[in-house]
Amino acid sequence: MRRSVLVGCLAILASCNRNTVPPDSSNSTPPASAVSSEESDRKAIEKLEAEARSIAKTDGCVASSDCRAAPIGVRGCGGPRDFIVYCAKTTDSASLARKIASADSAESAFNLKYKIGSTCELRMPPAVQASNGICSAN
Questions:
Q1: Per-residue pLDDT reduced to its tens digit, 45-97
Q2: How far is CA 2 from CA 6, 7, 14, 39, in A?
Q3: In whole angstroms, what is the distance from residue 54 CA to residue 60 CA?
Q4: Of 56, 81, 61, residue with least CA distance to 71
Q5: Burial of 56 (0-12, 13-18, 19+ CB in 10 A)
Q6: Cβ–Cβ < 8 Å for 96, 56
Q7: Which of 17, 30, 102, 137 could be disulfide-bonded to 34 (CB atoms 3.0-4.6 Å)?
């Protein structure tokens, strides 16, 4: 009885261990563009952030109340990494928000993938002002 149970278990294990997917006959590695590295992933985040910064216009605001500071980036411990100062009157705020969301999503995934840590202090947005028609951080 024990022998038949053992043979049955071995048969089940053997059938589970069979490779049901045919091996790749090309024996090639994925193209370099398909393989990501920490450096290439970081460059992709930097590109998204640069695109967000190019959407943000600092000129065209006379009143400081028209200036804004949008958080960008996601630190390992949470919270924004930086802020983008812009003039709400001359910036396409919806496009800026979408680009920032893309950059933040990419950085969140990066932080998880590479186990990025950071300090956990709370970063507040800078005070902003308009001077000579240009928004800037105080």
A1: 999 999 999 999 999 999 999 999 999 999 999 999 999 999 999 999 999 99
A2: 6, 9, 18, 57
A3: 15
A4: 81
A5: buried
A6: yes
A7: 30
Could you report the per-residue pLDDT of 98-136, keeping only the tens digit for each? 999 999 999 999 999 999 999 888 899 999 999 999 999
Mention every residue, 6+ apart, whose C-beta is less than 8 A from residue 69. Answer: 83, 84, 85, 86, 125, 126, 128, 137
Q: State the DSSP code for 86.
A: E
The phi and psi torsions of 39 (rounded to 5 degrees) equal -65, -45
Q: What is d(CA 133, CA 136) in angstroms, rounded to the nearest whole number?
A: 10
Matching residue, tokens 């400081």: 64
